[in-house]
## 1
Amino acid sequence: MYQHDDEDIFVIDGHVHLWDATEENIIHDGGEQFIQCFYDYHTTFTPAERQWSMDEYREYGAERMVDDLFSTAAVDMAIFQPTYLTDFYDEGFNTTEQNAELADEYPDRFILNGSFDPRDADPGIEYLEKLHETYDIPGVKLYTAEWRGDSKGWRLDDEDAFRFLERCADLGIDTIHVHKGPTIRPLNRDAFDVKDVDDAASSFPDLNFVVEHVGLPRLDDFCWIAAQEPNVYGGLAVAAPFAQNRPGKFSEILSELLWWLGEDRVLFGSDYAIWNPDWLVEAVLEAELTQEDRTEYGVEWDVETKKKVMGENAAKLYDIDVEAKRRAFRDDEITDRFDLGAHYAGEESAMADD
């Protein structure tokens, strides 16, 4: 657990990937453009001394991922969000099956989500059912701007998409993460528009829709939708790194989210490996709202709000017992490997010290 202002913060990183963007895996010019765009975001926001080389960025591997997420106690758990891009990458960029290898090795530390694409029709339904049967996935990550042949995207409110959402509801896959953020070369900006979330959320009130990247750069559209749809949440991936080098912008974004959605519907995510939580968690927790924003919005970025955003809200969505996890992590393999026992000792250790 991360210690902040003498408080223990249980951090669930709601947005991580284990990708392969090696040149050998790229089968379309779009694959190279995509990873180069990711790398541009990485270097724009990452502190200079923490930036990776392009070679290590293309494929960092499972062991480095475990180290980056957990060794500094910045993150306690993480949620895999796949991004297939099979038109760009021969073996896929970041598939459920690839993520599953690491999730199976550390099942208490990772949550494995699947995906679907309504353009896959009946075979896509069968694949979704297979993912559920094989991995018991609790959620899906959707990429509405993914290219598929001549198609450069799809909409969440289409009839075909509704068919897949209905099947998710039937199977108990009730958390729907949707990428609705900045354009990534060469994908279509309009295919990431947040407006199609509105009808989907209204039509499936028993599903929870986590809008990743909070609709940026369409934050205003997202907030108006989320304000009227109680099953819509905001994922801070992409917004979070503004805390490091655009603190005034981060204050504005966070204040808007807390005012419109409240402190119970905002979730932290690093977007690893675009950014690394070993510096990003600290940047977000140490961020402050400007006095102007605190006055205008009447919100606070206090420790109780931080606890919710950094982990407790995701825990509720995924039925995670945080206290039980804290106890289990006192002597699990990750804790032993990185000598993290002091981070999970809790009140018992403090009483013993007294």
Note: Strands lie at 2-4, 7-9, 12-16, 77-80, 110-112, 139-142, 175-179, 208-212, 232-235, 266-267.
## 2
Amino acid sequence: MSSANTPALAKIRHPSYLGVFLTFARNSLVRDMTFRGNFLIECVTSVTWMAMNLGFYLIIFKYTRQIAGWDQYEFFAFLSTTMIVNSLVQSFFMPNCEEVSELIRTGGLDFALLKPIDTQFLISLRKVEWAGLSNFFAGVILLSYSLVMMAQRSDTPLILSPQSLLLYTLFCLCGVAIMYSVMISLAATSIWLGQNRSLYDFWFYITNFSRYPMEIYEGPYGRPLRMIFTFVLPILLVVNVPARVIAWPFGTDAEQSNLTMYLAVFTLFATGLSLLASRWLFTAALRGYRSASS
């Protein structure tokens, strides 16, 4: 083999992961734009569902000033964070993890294993549901409105710094990573079980816990749930930590700052551990895969 072909072969063996992802994203956008009516309906349906949730909490705040220590606009910052994190997970990872069992059934996983790229990367990001990002932009609008209203409070106005916004972005990404770890771990079990139709059900149960402030989990039944979903399966960290960072910036309240700092440090640790554990589970499942034809 001549040395002139070496650079070309090296390029084939070591593809650009960013380039591959951008290709997937572009192809998904072309697919969605082929059926524009369906795309618009999905966007409207998604935003309408979140608007109904917002309306529900608007009604609640007509009868109370706080929910577990969160006032109206602090809670709306929490709700918008839920929208942002969930929309990213549902747009980039949910449709792909849901199809893992179908890839196994049809033999598509065999072809994924033959590609000169990491199999977990390929399976996780093959498709992007662009319609799901409608909630992301709705969440950003709601968050911006909530921050403005908190900054205009007469008693304790919110003072945001660039550091708070950077930390908020970081911990939102940590939340996405934790959710992805749970999702890819569940999808990996399809390799052993053949099918795993409970993905959406499990996702619904998990996101139900993450949608509320951890302060509501009190009492003989609530505290064990809070401990489990904070330190064992860290779902409560997904939304609570970034929401606390943006609603109660460090230095504004000593007690809240200390708790937020502790949770923030643990979130970084939990994110790394979740990614490592999900990677180990995925590779262990692949080692037990025997292809669709065997």
Note: The longest helix spans residues 254-287.
